[in-house]
Amino acid sequence: MLKPLIDDVSYIGTTNNTITSVYNQLLECLDNTKPEKRDSFLNYIFTFILLHHKSCESKQFIWQVIKEEFLFEPTYEKLERCVGLLNCMIVEFHRRKWIQHVAWLREHLEVICDAYLGVYELEKMEQNGDI
Q1: How many domains does the chain contain in total?
Q2: Measured distance CA(63)–CA(46) in Å, rounded
Q3: 10/6 Cα distance (integer angstroms)
């Protein structure tokens, strides 16, 4: 099931495959993935896409998946998983010398930390008081 999904990502924007249709295929794969394996599955998919499909559409696809999986109705657990996933990818990309994608990953990690995690933590501090 993974191979057709990965192949479809490379054709986003050039055929009838839209980001949404490929995302729906990913959702089907995720639904069949054990919860404890979900983030490692996403890490594999995102890494493969970044290394083999270098189009802007492919990066848009990754960002859409991140938004849908982690940032829609965010909870602390979702945000923690997302930050952990991106940090692990950054560390792996450095270790394996795939430096060309580190800036993009860091940029999106910073957006998540500032625009989502920071806002979430401020809301919780207002509700519950500071530590």
Answers
A1: 1
A2: 10
A3: 7
Q: Tell me if 90 sits within 8 A of 109, measured CB to CB.
A: yes
Residue 116: Cβ within 10 Å count: 18
The span from the CA of 74 to the CA of 5, in Å, is 26
Picking from 90, 93, 91, 124, the residue whose alpha carbon sits closest to that of residue 108 is 90
To the question of pTM greater than 0.85 for the whole model, the response is: no
Domain that holds residue 27: 2-128
Read off the pLDDT of residues 8-60 as tens digits, 9 standing for 90 and up. Answer: 555 554 555 566 676 777 778 888 888 888 899 899 889 988 888 777 778 88
| d(C-alpha 20, C-alpha 25), whole Å | 9
Q: How far apart are CA 62 and CA 69, in angstroms?
A: 10
Pair 109, 87: CB distance under 8 Å:
yes
